[in-house]
Amino acid sequence: MAGNPDFDLFKLADEHDELRTAIRALSEKEIAPYAKDVDENSRFPEEALKALNNSGFNAIHVPEAYDGQGADSVATCIVIEEVARVCGSSSLIPAVNKLGTMGLILNGSEELKAKVLPDLVNGEMASYALSEREAGSDAASMRTRAKADGDDWILNGSKCWITNGGKSSWYTVMAVTDADKGANGISAFMVHKDDEGFVVGPKEKKLGIKGSPTAELYFENCRIPGDRIIGEPGTGFKTALQTLDHTRPTIGAQAVGLAQGALDAAIAYTKDRKQFGTSIASFQNTQFMLADMAMKIEAARLMVYTSAAKAERGEKNLGFISAAAKCFASDVAMEVTTNAVQLFGGAGYTTDFPVERMMRDAKITQIYEGTNQIQRVVMSRALLK
Ligand code: COS
Does position 4 have pLDDT exceeding 70, yes or no? Predict the structure, then answer.
């Protein structure tokens, strides 16, 4: 292998680099101009949805067998990262479309996949409904129930903090089907927005990602056909956790994108901003801060792609690496965006510049798809088992 020029040692494929060029251009032209307005008015980024749908970047992960592009997990991360670099809220369109369909892709029947996945290719969205008001980190303590009724299932209960809730057409919903079996009595279902008894509740008022609605969902004798179950009854909690093994890298990618956006803005600003008769980028304090920010982003990006590649290869025991990637990248995003605000000084604390928005958006990456405390539980369990 040594010296072989054909051997792409530890480098992304040319297709990945080309994809980045394409999604970066689209993001800067069609998504970035609206990011401030989307945040200020807490409105859904319709422009981003349209641009992503028109270019097929909205749900690039959908396999070719279901009319999708079948992009690999690293490619999907690159798309999310590049959109997040300009607009955190918009990056949740491709990210949550993957989250809302990954359990189905991993464990659903062919018929169910064929029913749901082409809808995403056609621009509809999907969400993931695991958490409940009283069952967040302790997800297995959920109370939403599903009961067989003839050929149907009837769901009752509620879910909360559902990203893109109300905008999505399809929802992967975890519910208890056998209360005596704990985590192994939970099943996963695909619920459609038009199903009888499916109700979208109020939206949360949030610190960041204000363009992405976060809603409560209610199931009021919600009736769905029997074949909407994903896999066998009782396998839903495993499907939910397996999903997160595949999608935590995407949150890492979102975090890397937010951090990169803040670094890029900080580099431009510190070169331009004059104090004491010179640009503040000429001070070693600024230079070292920028160097640390860039170094940590680079490490986070590598970990995110590594975890995504392992998921793509179908490696077992993804728990450690996907939790590590999400945890590390989101901690880096929080630190980098906060330091970007610092480098902007007073200006960074105003909405005249995007870094305060990026800092607020970064915070959620330390919380959703499992708090970073839960990521450490997952990692340490893997180490000690
Ligand atoms: N993939 C597949 N199966 C898994 C799994 C994984 N990654 N991790 C655990 N399981 C299995 C376990 O083997 C166990 O099955 P058996 O009883 O057959 O052995 C079952 O799932 C239950 O696992 P466990 O006993 O570890 O569950 P806990 O209730 O202790 O919870 C944590 C585990 C804390 C890791 C889980 O609740 C969690 O990830 N919580 C955070 C949830 C979250 O991320 N919420 C955010 C929602 S998205 S915004």
Answer: no
